Amino acid sequence: MMGGRWGEGLRELRRYPSALMGLAIIAALVAISFYTVVAIPYSEALAQWRGGEVWQRNPVNAAPVWLDRLAGGGAPRTQVVTSAEAEVEESAFTGGRRLRIPLAFDYEAEQFPSELTLFLHARGHDQRPFVRLLWQTPDGREVPLGGYRIGAEERISLSQDRALERRLGGLVPHIGLLAEPGMTAERAAEAAPSVLPGRYTLLMDVLLFDEAARVDAELVLYGRVHGLAGTDHQRRDLSLALLWGTPVALAFGLLAAVGTTVTTLVIAAVGVWYRGWVDATIQRLTEVNMILPILPILVMVGTLYSTSIWLMLGVVVVLGIFSASIKMYRAMLLPIREAPYIEAARAYGASNARIVLRYLIPRILPVLIPTFVTLIPTFVFLEASLAVLGLGDPLLPTWGKVLNDAQSQSALYNGYYYWVVSPAVLLMLTGLGFAMLGFALDRVFNPRLRSL
Amino acid sequence: MSPSAVPRPDDAQAPLIAASDLHTWFELRQWGFLRLGAVRAVDGVDFTLAHGEAVAFVGESGCGKSSLARTLLGLHRPTRGEVRFAGRSLGELKGRALKAYRAEVGYVQQDPYGALPPFLDVRRLLAEPLIVHGVRDRAERERRIRAALEEVRLSPAEEYLGKFPHMLSGGQQQRVVIARALILAPRLVIADEPVSMLDASVRVEILELLRHIQCERGLTLAFITHDLSTVRHYAERIFVMYAGRVVESAPVDDLLDHPQHPYTQALLAAIADPDAANATRLREVPAGEPPSLLHPPAACRFHPRCPHFMAGVCDRHDPPDFEPRRRHRSACWLHR
Hints:
The structure holds two protein chains of two kinds. Chain A folds into two domains: about 5-50 and about 235-450, MetI-like fold, CATH 1.10.3720; about 75-220, Jelly Rolls, CATH 2.60.120. Chain A is about 55% helix and about 15% strand. Chain A has helices at about 5-15, 15-40, 40-50, 65-70, 160-165, 175, 185-190, 240-275, 275-290, 295-305, 310-320, 325-335, 340-345, 350-390, 400-410, 415-445, 445-450, and strands spanning about 80, 90-95, 95-105, 115-125, 130-135, 140-150, 155, 200-210, 215-220. The mean pLDDT of chain A is about 90. Chain B has a single domain, classed as Rossmann fold, CATH 3.40.50.300. Chain B has helices spanning about 65-75, 95-105, 110-115, 120-130, 140-150, 160, 170-180, 200-215, 230-235, 250-255, 260-270; strands at about 15-30, 35-50, 55-60, 80-85, 90, 105-110, 190, 220-225, 235-240, 245-250, 320-325, 330. In chain B, β11 (about 320-325) and β12 (about 330) form a beta hairpin. In chain B, α7 (about 170-180) runs parallel beside α8 (about 200-215). The longest helix of chain B has 18 residues, at about 200-215. The chains are: A alpha+beta, B alpha/beta.
């Protein structure tokens, strides 16, 4: 029905490079959203973001891989050596069996790993198995790492073994075990220790006392870089939050913008059409609402009630209903109210509802589209601001939550710039995309700018 | 069924619409309750229009012609008096009956571009009255829209259906406005200065078109105009309005050839006449300003400007309608 005018406007949009850029950014964000929602289902995303087990094999606060590439490389990725790949030698003794499991791996990176942990997984035993560990370096040195009686799930953190650290001359085990021979803490203060590249082996001597008993081992050399977005202090992969933050941000922005725009527009049109006490009431409500501070109210609701993102959305929309834009819409609608075509519509019997919805509102829609588009990112920013203030949704991974975590862990002070920069860049891109499209739309649809 | 085929009642002389003692005042208020006075736009008007009659209401700007039109359309509620349409009082119509009345009366406005919603194409804006009046069948709507366009000589209709108002010329826009006024098959069409905003070249065409449709359909047509020069060809009766009142009414020829009221005489004297002799002759034009409708002059509204002013009469007593000639009424004490 209105195809002609809208189609014309959209065709004209192609003349603005900024509009195309904005559209490309928005399209990319939308594509990411769709991919995310399909690839990582909502419930799974929530479960993963809660943290724990899932992230055990991730390093803490690792930078994104591409960041290391830019810096010239050399940072190790996480390396996992499992007993399943090892050549196990088995021998029997009275009362049990003895397994020799060599966990061998090549270490070629320039930098040391960030942590060294051995995960042991034992099954089918009545009496707990016993494990003795021996570290073999490429140059033939052997470092005994002690013996452990292990339960069903055992996590042996070699990095935190203080005794081992003393034996390694005061060097943290994940450095000391992989460093050039003869390196100690005192010498490390003068010249940074360097890695001795080559084939290392963690030789496990396992004593099993039951016929059915089995032991699986996993040696994890945590890297210093991880994935596309790095990890946070809880080993969580930040790409999960950055990915899921996209649909959440877009949905929040869009719903809030639609909710406030549609309601304010209809209310303003109703006031303009009926005039009298209806209009007066709407105007007074708006004036009262205009002086209410929205952020403190949201903070209050979040503190006292719940910080669920949907509740926040509801509060934002409710507070937005009688917002200042009612004044703007009213000013735009007042002259249209007196237009002859409205009088003609009354003369052929159009109802009040029809006049408001079909004759008043469509007339200003073209001018509103740009405002609407530029309104979306302001709500995205509002959601992020709330999250940074600690009022983000407690369950959902969002950009604002990432920023909040980064702030609480002093990311910038500790040099984890990626932690702050990536969500911030995504937020800025969102704002930029919608703003560029909005400004171009404004030029196309706003008659006053058109003549320029 | 084509609207023009609707059989009209055979009572050509029975009144279709009648106004009696009609007043439309607009109250001026301050702060919503303090009454400052009232603009007396329509201030005691009586007339009767028969079926199939074409009449013209003539007067200066601000004499209340347009307010009268809107009151007849039911857009303004009369302050006093009543409008009766086909025997029923307009004030009693509510809901369905009022909506039915709106289908009976077509409205052609002055500014054709403003009268058409700029965001709807011709098909859509002509469909609107049909949708409002419950014509649900799409094919039926399309048929009536095409018929209406053909009737106002916008043919072939296909060429105009998809156009937006701004793509049409002024004359074409006014034809669309007329088509919209006719699409509900009204019995009365009120045309408020239908050609005053058009190019001189298309004025005659539009007036001819209205007259033609009126004859064809047997419509009652009420022109509102300030232009006495063209009225003779398009109306059968004329009502001359001054300051919210009808001061003279007569069949068109009689009124133009034998004006009785001093105001009508002044109006006729002011019509431009392409005669070389006029170049040197000085015309008499009524002195003074059109009266304020907020504080109209007492008694005869025209007395401050009247060349025949009789002190103690014209400014004391309201002149009743005299009938100095047959079917020719004039409200002036000169006919006493």
